[in-house]
Amino acid sequence: MRKIFQSKIYLLICFFALLILNSCNQQDVETEMDDKAYNRISELSIPAPKAKRELNQLTYHGRDLEDHYFWLKDQSYPVIDDTEVLDYLNAENRYFEHFIDSNSELVDTLFEEFKGRVEEEEKSLPYIKNGYEYWWYYKKDSDYPTYVRRKIGSQEIQIILDEAKLAADYDYFVIGDWKISPDNTLLAYTQDTSGDERYVLKVFDLDSMQYKEDVLTDVQGDILFGANSDEIIYSLLEKDRWHAKEVKVHKIGDSQSEDKTIYSEEDDGFFINFYLTSDEEYLVISSSRSEVTEIYLVPRSNLSSKLLKVVSREQGFDSTIDHSDDRFYILANDSHKNFRFASVSDIDPDYEKWETILDGSDSLYFLGLQTFKDFIVLKCRDNGLDKILVGNYSESFESVEFPESPASVALGYNPEYQQSFVRLSFQSMITPRTTFDYQVQDKNLITKKVQVIPSGYEKTRYKTERIMIKARDGKDIPVSLVYKSDFVKDGNSPMMLYGYGAYGSTISPTFSTLRLSLLDRGFAYAIAHIRGGSMLGYQWYLDGKLEKRENTFNDFVDVGMALIKLGYSSKNNISISGRSAGGELMGAAVIQSPELWRSVILGVPFVDVLNTMLDESLPLTPPEWEEWGNPIKSPEAFDLIKGYSPYDNIKSEDYPPMLVTGGLNDPRVTYWEPAKWTAKMRHLKTDDNLLLMRMNMGSGHFANSGRFGRLKDYAQEYSFVLRSHGIER
Questions:
Q1: 428/446 Cα distance (integer angstroms)
Q2: Catalytic status, residue 577
């Protein structure tokens, strides 16, 4: 795959009309593109930053690994105070800001379009939990929601969490999780004010409206209350490492140093997680590594009792568990990669006593479950199409019928174990997010909420479809597309192609108000459901990892070429975008076939794969060896990763315009990965196409916080794409 196709000059000079969105009155106007519409956007008038080159050479398995930008990793990390490093990052930001300033009118137009599609005073659907009704709402112009509750039978509304007020003193603010105690008197929440995902836990007394003295640091994010309301369950991050090794129980009023450890993970390669069963009887602690999950249970009412291991890592399969009445219900891929659905008595949950309810199959892929008092719900994917199954523990399961397919369907928030309905979320690439309550007894879908788009939206103006594209090895790759109803497949239209392809995560065909700004300017938008994700089942994921990793990159490039042949777009008229592991995909795709793409957005890109997998001091590296391979121990893994690692394969040739983003405090994809990619690309590329890097100096993996802050980020990114296609307004 690392073989680079010979660059070819592709010039297409034409005039054509595009419909663009007027954010003020939503009327279509025609914009005529000039003769330079197919020319790439060039570097700015001011000099681009140049990072110094300083050779660092290491040897593994008799193989030399040279890196001239190793110095961009601050050697005091996670403290980042190297003046030379910071000076370079700031220089890149100034260069980026020059582009934004030069295109401020377009950025502002896009931002107003995005904002115009946001319901400024949006209110959530209420839900019932433990005798109270809860909901949230946004105040006009507020970046953050306010959470409130009302006791059933009362008219008094109590503000329990005002995010806007809490965020007022910070440039970055995110609530990781919040929970109400079982006795309804306490609120516990976690907050992150730097983007490093190292949370602080606080406890608020809802009766006195005063904070407790308890302030816990180095919390991973998620929290739960014990059954008696004076215990809080959390995971503790290691000092200077973004890896939780312990599940702790904090007794309110005690110091954090006195907190009891109820589970400790000794293997750096495993991630720990915890949750309550739907009936809130058991705390589930899972420790997982790629395809293997180990599960422990402890009664919520007695967190100090001995943990019960129900699934061992030595058994070597993935699983999840829930509980109802006197039985555990389990999804496990022990007998089929797409999982089976089974149950077992909670008195003796020995593996040998598991009873299969639904067998696994090649077509039906089980994704999740939730138990209720009188029924159980399964989330599945049937031949790549989302599906919800509902059963009553004694009869066969029935599929919920939705109004449209293909679509994205998900279990909504259903906190009450005893209820007569299940709340479901539904959307497609042309249908705004809709919330249904499915009445189990009547088998009816009741519409509870439809996403409001204040500036207006007419579904009939757009079309969506799913097609299958054959990859170079013969596999059929699903592709979801959306475009204007008058779209013509004559090859003249610009396109945005998105992909991810890792960890089994699937990019579903969801609705996006942001995307409308591209569609209304004549773009087609496509999502490539490539291997490495799990659109077509668990094997689809396995076929894109480890020694099969290059399938992911090949699939994406093959999708792009096929879309050109089918007339959806043309060569050098497709912009591509991906984030994180999807940023790795972007790097690999642009190196394999640079001549195909009009522009590339590499969002917080995992592009320095080999160096990262060789650095076991990074807390996220050992768990990732199961995904990518361990180049420290295996020369074969070293050669494999080096063969596709985007950073290691940059060559001296022409590349399309690129926008690279990063976050200084990002614990997932460290800041030096996008920085090193940008520096090396600047040195080696032979073109004068625009290369930008936006390094957020006060956030992490998810860039700006707040709903409008993130819209500003997207406005900048979309302006880069539009300018790359010669569109200036």
A1: 18
A2: no
